[in-house]
Amino acid sequence: MAEEDVTRRVIDTIAKTIHQPTESIGPESTFEAIGVDSLDGIQILFALEQEFDISISDDEAKKIRSVPDVVAGIRLLLAAKG
Known about the structure:
The chain is globular. The mean pLDDT is 95. Helix content is 63%, strand content 0%. It contains 4 helices and no strands. Helix 1 packs across helix 2 and helix 1 packs across helix 4.
């Protein structure tokens, strides 16, 4: 899957989860900049797990602070999944 596709799906999923317009979230956005709190973060992770059919470990989840973090992590999980 192309990185642009992963990024677009991540942004769409985050926007849907936190009820913000997709345009308000960029490929370099941090969670802090878009107003994501810890509860939003948990909901986003669940939504991303469903969207990509992956499982994000608690250790990895703690490191996620931005859209690029999410995209990089998902790409690794998808690559490992084959």
